[in-house]
Design a protein that fits this description.
Strand order of the largest sheet: 3-2-1-5-6-4
Shape: elongated
Largest sheet: 6 strands, mixed
Distance between the termini: 40 Å
Order of helices and strands: EEEEHEEHHHHHH
Strand content: 5-15%
Structural class: alpha+beta
Number of strands: 6
Number of helices: 7
Helix content: 40-55%
């Protein structure tokens, strides 16, 4: 089995792991664990030969616990990566890659704001509110690593924009964060669905160009939040 690359989970006993079929086996002799945290080193190690990626699922999330591989491969991978990173060319390549990522992120943020404004489809007299809301939602949802629905590529940007907007409104225009929701399967999703319908009803008033009263939850939220980088509760994907 040590000649195969596979995903495993921690075993119940020290020095063991579980295979995909739940069989518990001993870690091959001479193998060590490379802890997670250095993607470049991990990629180089996996390129040197068979390895076992240790993953552990907690709830709906899967966490990496590192990569098991022959100790000699880990030593060799470290040496090769260190030598590469010591080369002045490496720093220049990193800087160029950083600038490309930043440029790509700037384009995405602008595209995302545009998608939000299109989803809102506010009457021209409320265009200012649409721009303000788009700025706030994008500031929260688009940062790399935020883990929000805006960062997924599984759905079109139009759907990401609408989901992110509704999620923002759930936290800022409803009492969702203070609600006591029964720990019953599907209950939280049902509550979110009800709140989403309420948020859409609020948006319809802006789309129709109605006069917005001071009691409007969205208007109150926009008036209250002055800084795009103000604190936001953790957001979950829709």
């Amino acid at each position: 089995m040590s000649d195969q690359t596979r995903n495993v989970t921690p075993g119940r006993r020290p020095g063991t792991v579980r295979l995909e079929d739940k069989t518990e086996v001993a870690i091959p002799a001479g193998w060590e664990l490379l802890p997670p945290g250095d993607a470049g080193l991990t990629r180089r190690l996996k390129a040197l030969g068979p390895s076992w990626t240790v993953q552990e699922k907690k709830g709906r999330r899967v966490f990496s616990r590192g990569v098991l591989a022959p100790a000699e491969n880990i030593r060799r991978a470290r040496e090769e990566v260190e030598a590469k990173r010591a080369d002045p060319k490496y720093e220049r390549q990193l800087e160029q890659a950083r600038k490309r990522r930043e440029a790509k992120q700037e384009v995405y943020v602008e595209d995302f704001k545009g998608a939000i404004v299109a989803f809102l489809n506010f009457h021209p007299i409320h265009a200012g509110f649409a721009d303000q809301l788009a700025e706030l939602v994008a500031a929260h949802a688009t940062p790399v690593g935020s883990g929000t629905v805006a960062r997924t590529e599984r759905i079109p940007i139009e759907e990401r924009a609408s989901a992110a907007t509704i999620a923002w409104m759930r936290h800022h225009t409803t009492d969702y964060d203070n609600m006591h929701i029964a720990r019953v399967r599907g209950e939280r999703r049902q509550v979110r669905g009800q709140l989403a319908k309420a948020s859409l009803r609020v948006l319809q008033r802006y789309r129709r160009g109605e006069k917005i009263p001071g009691t409007c939850p969205l208007k109150k939220a926009l008036d209250r939040i002055q800084e795009p980088n103000a604190f936001y509760p953790d957001d979950e994907e829709e």
